[in-house]
């Protein structure tokens, strides 16, 4: 797996969590670390390639400059910064600046941490979480980093965990004795305090994904975590009083590596399902990996169903790609340098994959309407080639380049 050696370098073992942070920067402190480098759109038949920083690893999409167009944030692992790509409205995402963040960043969340009406960024690396205050025009103040290296953060999610209408952070990481999740409470002004830590597993198997959602319909937010090296999905059900009950589902063979997880209603029955990117087993050179679907997993009666994607699936997105009203699955495949689109057939079934070539070593995929035509487009980060591919959808699941 192309990127696994890099991930292996940043897994730490540490002890306790530092608490408390104020963003502390204003938009007058905005300081992109380098000018935009432009793009090379239209070089390939199916993609627009934006040249980004070293080792673009993670993506997030939202309207960052309040113009109703979907923009893109790219986390550059190799250069410890984020690139902000603004959208002029036709899907041509143009880099407007880069901002220094914590070392070896590999995850990002977008939300309004300080309640000023502008979207902010939280960027996670193994040494901490950097907060960048949004200015509302697509620029950001210089980062302030929450120093939580003791918890070896691996994934983060943003949600109002305590029902006070303020966005908190759930940070999944590993300490000396166990993998855990730490809930960082937000006072509404981006002062974060470590409120509680929940032990998830004793294996130090690491996390590849963290999702926050209400699994059982009790209006309390639960947590779902993919254990990277234990081939398990951990479920943390909130009791409404600040506590969690924990359980785990074995979803693949013990030697398999789980790379991503999404929680969505995939079969339209009103219950939430799990979609897992299974890298396969490193002990079996003939195992290309797969996408695993678990329907209504909290019922306790589900069995994993696997679908073939490309080689080494690493990232997932879902949505209706071809306009038939059914949810599809989009998969970034790290070793085969492509994405797979698995078209939904209803009732949890998916047709054979359609493959689209992208750059070298894709690591993340997001699906949003970048071109403002009502169709779901795709962005892919290509770690080894230092690019982001933008695939524009004609509404039937066929993709062409932006110009």
Structure description:
- The protein is 2% helix and 46% strand.
- The strands form eight sheets. Strands 1, 2, 29, 30, 31 and 32 form a six-stranded antiparallel sheet that branches.
- The longest helix has 7 residues.
Summarize this, please?
This protein has 403 residues and is mostly beta strands. It contains 1 helix and 32 strands. It has one helix at residues 4-10, and strands at residues 39-44, 47-51, 56-62, 71-76, 81-86, 94-100, 107-111, 120-125, 128-132, 144-147, 153-159, 168-174, 179-186, 192-201, 207-213, 222-227, 232-238, 244-250, 258-264, 273-278, 290-294, 305-307, 313-319, 328-333, 338-342, 344-346, 349-350, 354-357, 362-368, 377-382, 387-393, 399-400.
Question: Which helices and strands, and how do they pair?
Answer:
Elements: H1 4-10, E1 39-44, E2 47-51, E3 56-62, E4 71-76, E5 81-86, E6 94-100, E7 107-111, E8 120-125, E9 128-132, E10 144-147, E11 153-159, E12 168-174, E13 179-186, E14 192-201, E15 207-213, E16 222-227, E17 232-238, E18 244-250, E19 258-264, E20 273-278, E21 290-294, E22 305-307, E23 313-319, E24 328-333, E25 338-342, E26 344-346, E27 349-350, E28 354-357, E29 362-368, E30 377-382, E31 387-393, E32 399-400
Antiparallel strand pairs: 1-2, 2-31, 3-4, 4-5, 5-6, 7-8, 8-9, 9-10, 11-12, 12-13, 13-14, 15-16, 16-17, 17-18, 19-20, 20-21, 21-22, 23-24, 24-25, 25-28, 26-27, 29-30, 30-31, 31-32
